[in-house]
Design a protein that fits this description.
alpha+beta; elongated; single chain; 30% helix
């Protein structure tokens, strides 16, 4: 410091699985992010079930994760209002980066990137556009840069009425396809094709491990009975839904479902299978009591909008 005052040393430590630490971080979250509250039980599941590098201080916390062995994600940095401007946020940032780099090296790799976002578990897909400018400047002034790619959006649709327009429903009804919820008997073929085509196959593995195959819709070629398309169609009780921090904040609250990992086998693409999967999945979800559907981290444009989804 130019005035001779030594820099503040912040007593940052690893977050433990103790009830005391959980209660502390949960209480701080509600104060720091009042417009993005998280249920205590949901916070506990996110922190305890999914591995991460998390840190706590009497006045704040940092949640970070390493994905694919080499890509760091800082999901949240929170500092209580009365303690801001004292360097704690910067200290959290440096601490997380150093620890993520060490974890990557332990896995015989290196930290290739560091982003302010989350993937699994899911908080925000990017820094929310309605965050104050000083929050965005905090990251920009510490070496981060704005993404040059398309804006990532979360989408939502009320499905208490028609799940699609009459034109789309008619189009889907004329498609020569079969649909059915997933089942254990369909596991091997599904997972073989998932691993060959998509990076999200672990979500399907997780549902199968908890015997929640019914949370997936499958499309079949009616001539060969081969599986050609899949989508998650999760209710709020699905194990996958537990990792989405803000799912209960949707207008439909505890009756919100999740559609994700919509995939079509390479041999069947360009034929409307994905659109039909969405329609059949929403119809199934509505039958199970789901009133609203959430889709996270959407980059593509004009596909989900055809079905009435809007940015949340």
């Amino acid at each position: 410091m130019q005035d001779g005052t030594p820099p503040i040393k912040h007593a940052i430590r690893d977050l433990t699985s103790s009830d005391e630490d959980l209660e502390k971080i949960w209480q701080m979250w509600q104060t720091i992010f009042p417009e993005w509250p998280i249920e205590r039980q949901r916070m506990e599941k996110i922190l305890h079930q999914l591995p991460g590098q998390h840190y706590i201080h009497e006045k704040g916390f940092c949640l970070s994760f390493l994905t694919d062995g080499s890509h760091g994600k800082i999901a949240a940095i929170g500092v209580l209002p009365e303690y801001r401007g004292k360097g704690l946020g910067t200290a959290f940032m440096k601490n997380a980066q150093a620890k993520l780099r060490n974890v990557a090296r332990t896995n015989e790799g290196e930290l290739k990137s560091l982003e302010i976002r989350s993937q699994t578990p899911r908080f925000w897909p990017q820094v929310p556009i309605d965050f104050p400018q000083e929050v965005k400047d905090f990251f920009l002034h510490r070496g981060f840069r704005k993404s040059t790619g398309s804006t990532v959006r979360d989408l939502y649709k009320d499905i208490r009425g028609a799940v699609a327009s009459p034109e789309i429903l008619e189009r889907v009804s004329k498609m020569n396809l079969k649909f059915s919820p997933w089942s254990p008997e369909l596991y091997e073929e599904c997972m073989t094709k998932q691993r060959a085509n998509f990076s999200w196959f672990k979500a399907y593995e997780a549902l199968a491990a908890y015997n929640q195959h019914h949370e997936v819709m499958v499309a079949f070629d009616p001539d060969t009975n081969a599986q050609i398309g899949w989508t998650l169609m999760c209710s709020h009780t699905a194990i996958i839904s537990d990792s989405f921090a803000f799912l209960p904040l949707m207008p439909s609250k505890e009756k919100t479902g999740l559609i994700a990992a919509v995939g079509v086998d390479e041999s069947a693409r360009g034929k409307g299978v994905g659109l039909a999967l969405m329609v059949k999945a929403m119809e199934n979800m509505r039958e199970r009591g789901v009133e609203g559907v959430y889709i996270d981290s959407v980059v593509i444009r004009d596909f989900y909008e055809k079905l009435g989804f809007k940015t949340f």
